[in-house]
Structures are given as C-alpha cells and as structure tokens.
C-alpha cells in the first residue's frame, strides 16, 4: 500500500508524507476559500507531526528528540504502541493536542472566553491541519478510513 510506495512506515517516511499532505491541504484550503489564511492549515499539519505525532508514545525508543522529556508522562500513560489512545482521531488526537499544548491553551483561555476560542476561524484551520496530519500518519501505518476514528 502507501508504505510500500514510500519505502516503509518509519519516521522519515512519516515526515515525507506529512510534507506532501501539508502542501496539498494548504493548496486546497487556499483554492477553496481564496484566503491566504489557508497557510495556517498547512502549518498546523506540519507542526502536529513534528510536535504531537501519534508516535509520541514510543519516543524513548527512538532516542532523544526535541521535546522528548515533555512527552514522557504521555508515553507512560499509553498502554502500547498504536493503542486507540494514541492512534485514533476521536481519542488520540484530542489527547495529544491537549497534552502538547495545555500551557499555551491555558494562557490563551485566560485572556479569551472558551466560546470565542472555539468559534475563531484559525482554530478551525488548526483542527483541519491536525486531522489531515493524523489521517496521513494512520494511512501510512496501514489503517483503512473506517479505522481512523477509533483505531484498529
């Protein structure tokens, strides 16, 4: 499947596919909305794979990487690799987004009420970028679309 086309399902292949997805989703967003704010979607896609990848549950096995210590508690919380708490759109993505950004989120929410935060256009673009990033990651791991919501 996709992993055969890219030569595997390791970190270099995930990063390559993430770049392809980020450029594609940015182009689609800008073409559909005629708004350069579509760059936020692509940037979010890139940052999610870099900072809050579904594979953060195995970081200690990969060696040191930026932010490694921040994710150790998350890694201990996940029972095994590709568990639905790490590799699913409904549970894994929100958990990683919360864990990876909670200090920034608290700072932002202290200055803006929750209802306004969830209604901002940039938040929609960030979520679209995050979902696109995870879908590309799961596809490379061999997930079918119906398995992406709750994992295998």
Keywords for this structure?
mainly alpha; single chain; 63% helix; 152 residues; globular
Summarize the entry for a quick read.
By secondary structure, this protein is mainly α.
- What is the helix content? 55-70%
Average pLDDT confidence is: 85
| Global shape | globular
For the largest beta-sheet, the strand count, sense and barrel status come to: none
The stretches of 5 or more residues where confidence is low (pLDDT under 50) are none
Oligomer: single chain
Span of the ends, CA to CA: 17 Å
Percent strand equals: under 5%
What is the element string, with H for helices and E for strands? HHHHHHHH
Number of helices: 8
The count of DSSP E runs of length 2 or more, i.e. the number of strands, is 0
Radius of gyration equals 16 Å
